[in-house]
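A reminder from the course coordinator: this example appears on the midterm review sheet, so study it carefully.

Given structure:
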């Protein structure tokens, strides 16, 4: 790591929490063992728990006083960041080289030897801090979450967590086993879903039917896991003193600033404001494609073909073109963001191409000991790859901006509210969008830019109703736990919600596949209630984009300021700092929908 670059990138620490010094130690006491804890994650990564445990024990035993708290938090943060970075580097190693057997073995050993012990040690330190009654500077927000976690923590739930993980693994094995024979060519689920974006309608229909046939084959196994998971969740909630799982889960997810009723109000606002706009777009699509009925394979909520039947965009040919163009785009948004991106590129912290022996999908991982981020994608040259690059870069900028905080729980993304983390990444997709034009250094000539942007905005608009189906379905499930154990009733509820929120789709003759397809949405099975956050974050991002249209510099400055607060401000305050409202009422949504619809019209009208 280049120290001088780091100093230029991070802002000065707030002075009140930065004064860590050996002078705080009682006279005659030598500086403790943390002085010799490796600073370099590479050295540390060779350590097993046998070596780490002495440091963990020392932190657990050290006396906590108003004088010692800053040193203690600093040392805890150093150790926690080293452990987190080592583990993350192993995730990176195994996903970038799936055939690296030594890497897989190291990952497995670390997962089994270090991580469970590290998690137990983290939990013990959190309790020690809470019991001390001390309030470190700029630490109220992490303390709020720690306190909330501690109140629902139950020893008897540990065995149930293990059981839950076993069922989740069983479900993952089921989804991984979704294999398809496509004219003799073996395809996985992601490859079949990608076919829903092709221009040939028959191919799309075939892809949907292949997916639903596969879901039907797995239905009995999936439903058995589902009922077991429901029972397990109810028991965990009961053990923690909750009468229903949703209240328990709300606290587990750290949802302090909105209620189930707020989510339902959001669904209602989507019904009022978004559905009419989607219906208007659908009418245009039908006219342009000369079709009478929109079927699920014409407008799948994940992947869809171009509404005008135009060929797919090809914004870049090589990864070098992608990174150099993206860097130019960022330099138009804000030179500091371009510098962050360049740093990742120079330090080989971008692995972007699709190649053999590499995992699927995309992610950003934080490297907390190095104050860096790592971006993983499987880019093939599509317009979606450009959006993904902007999105994951938004997450990476969050890591850079929050790196100024001295303590791990102030700077780690994992402990921040998802409703804001995703707002940071989704905002970057929109803030950067004007600069994707070739004459501003970007990827597209004017007609292609119009196509790329209207594709992106349509996706944003159409996501909200689908999100509402997924969320409303789960509210129904946990409000009606007995009915939800009967998967036929789940099918009914899902189909009814689907027809309500996506009324433009014609399911005639496909009713059975509609009833099946809640099983395609992994979140429902393994990440309960974790979905509405994306809808909220998207609304925050559109508000931020609206601000940028008024005054781009001011909007980007607010964006960076909010990111740099790390985990030291509440969820509504993070939104406020970004210049937007944490609000998902009808008025806010109506303004967002109008802006999106008007922009799509302007873009399409121009070409
Ligand atoms: Zn994201």
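Designed residues:
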């Amino acid at each position: 790591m280049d120290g001088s670059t780091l100093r230029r990138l991070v802002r000065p620490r707030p002075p009140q929490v930065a004064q860590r010094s050996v002078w705080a130690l009682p006279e005659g006491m030598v500086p403790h063992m943390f002085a010799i804890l490796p600073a370099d994650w590479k050295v540390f990564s060779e350590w097993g728990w046998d070596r780490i445990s002495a440091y963990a024990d020392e932190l657990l035993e050290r006396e906590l006083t108003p004088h010692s708290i800053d040193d203690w938090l600093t040392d805890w943060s150093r150790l926690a960041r080293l452990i987190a970075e080592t583990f993350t580097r192993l995730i990176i190693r195994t996903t970038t080289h799936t055939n690296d057997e030594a890497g897989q073995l190291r990952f497995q050993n670390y997962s089994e030897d270090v991580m469970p012990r590290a998690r137990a040690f983290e939990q013990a330190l959190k309790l020690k801090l809470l019991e001390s009654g001390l309030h470190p500077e700029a630490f109220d927000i992490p303390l709020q979450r720690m306190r909330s976690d501690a109140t629902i923590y139950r020893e008897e739930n540990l065995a149930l967590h293990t059981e839950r993980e076993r069922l989740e693994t069983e479900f993952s094995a089921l989804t991984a086993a979704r294999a398809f024979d496509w004219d003799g060519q073996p395809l996985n689920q992601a490859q079949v879903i990608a076919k829903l974006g092709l221009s040939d309608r028959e191919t799309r229909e075939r892809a949907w039917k292949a997916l639903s046939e596969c879901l039907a084959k797995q239905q009995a196994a999936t439903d058995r896991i589902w009922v077991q998971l429901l029972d397990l969740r109810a028991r965990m909630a009961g053990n923690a003193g909750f009468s229903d799982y949703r209240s328990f889960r709300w606290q587990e997810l750290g949802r302090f600033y909105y209620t189930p009723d707020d989510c339902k109000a959001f669904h209602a606002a989507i019904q009022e404001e978004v559905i009419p706009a989607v219906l208007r777009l659908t009418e245009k699509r039908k006219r342009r494609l000369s079709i009478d009925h929109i079927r699920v394979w014409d407008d799948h909520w994940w992947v869809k073909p171009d509404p005008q039947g135009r060929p797919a965009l090809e914004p870049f040919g090589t990864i070098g073109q992608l990174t150099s163009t993206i860097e130019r785009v960022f330099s138009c948004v804000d030179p500091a963001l371009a510098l962050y991106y360049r740093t990742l590129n120079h330090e080989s912290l971008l692995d972007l191409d699709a190649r053999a022996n590499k995992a699927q999908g995309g992610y950003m991982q934080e490297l907390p000991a190095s104050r860096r981020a790592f971006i993983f994608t499987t880019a093939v040259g599509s317009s979606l790859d450009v959006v993904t690059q902007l999105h994951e870069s938004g997450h990476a900028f969050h890591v850079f901006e929050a790196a100024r905080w001295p303590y791990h729980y102030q700077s780690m993304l994992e402990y921040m509210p998802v409703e804001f983390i995703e707002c940071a990444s989704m905002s970057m997709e929109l803030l950067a969008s004007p600069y994707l034009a070739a004459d501003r250094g970007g990827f597209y000539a004017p007609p292609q830019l119009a196509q790329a942007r209207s594709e992106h905005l349509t996706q944003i608009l159409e996501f909200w109703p689908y999100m509402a189906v997924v969320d409303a379905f789960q509210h129904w499930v946990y409000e009606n736990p007995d009915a939800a154990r009967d998967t036929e009733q789940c099918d009914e509820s899902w189909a009814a919600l689907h027809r309500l929120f996506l009324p433009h789709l014609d399911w005639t003759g496909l009713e059975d596949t509609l009833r099946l397809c809640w099983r395609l949405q992994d979140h429902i099975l393994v990440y309960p209630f974790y979905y509405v956050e994306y809808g909220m974050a998207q609304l925050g991002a559109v508000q931020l984009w609206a601000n940028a249209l008024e005054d781009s510099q001011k909007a980007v400055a607010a964006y960076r300021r909010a990111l740099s607060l790390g985990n030291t401000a509440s969820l509504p305050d993070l939104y406020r700092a970004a210049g937007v409202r944490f609000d998902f009422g009808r008025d806010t949504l109506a303004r967002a929908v109008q802006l999106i619809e008007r922009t799509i019209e302007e873009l399409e009208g121009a070409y």
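The CA atoms of residues 74 and 406 lie 7 Å apart. Residues 391, 395, 422, 425 surround zinc ion (CB under 6 Å).
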